[in-house]
Amino acid sequence: MSNRSQRRMLMKNWHISAIVIGIILALLGLYSVFVISGETNRKNAECTEKTIGTITGVTKSGSTYLTDIEYVIEESEMNTTIEAKKDLGVGNTIDIYYEPLSWSHIYIDGVSPTGTKDVLFGLVVTLVGAAFIGAGVMTLRKKKSNGI
Q: What gap in Å lies between CA 38 and CA 41, rounded to an integer?
């Protein structure tokens, strides 16, 4: 345990730590808004070929549903499990879009994540970073006005 004078020394320059943490959070948020969301949307846009998938199973998992889908790409049988917000119904068919050259990424309209979630996350993190920066700057100004 540290004594009171050690704690005071640690807290003496906490405003600098708050500003640095705020800058890091703001940069992370902006990166999420502009880079990660764009990359997600770009990958989804590359899924240009369409096939029909059949829902083979639905399992409730908390507030979401784990949905098993079987589909065929160029005579190759494929299956995947996705997380959906609603029960899509066993036996129903669904449109699946995939990358024609690699088949490594699929996109299901209304189910697959888009860049919107990344933008929302980025905006929240940027605002939290701005709050840290604001608190640090306000404390620094208060210390300068008090002559400390």
A: 5
Element of type H or E holding 72: strand 64-73
**pLDDT reading at 1 higher than 60:** no
Amino acid residing at 70: E
Amino acid at 10: L
CA geometry: angle 78, 82, 86, nearest 5 deg: 135
pLDDT-derived band at 126 (thresholds 50, 70, 90) equals very high
DSSP bridge partners of 81: 68
Show the tokens assigned to 106. Answer: 């699929």
60 vs 116: CA distance, rounded Å: 25
Residue of 9, 33, 23 whose CA lies nearest to 122: 33
- Partner residues linked to 60 by β-bridges: 65
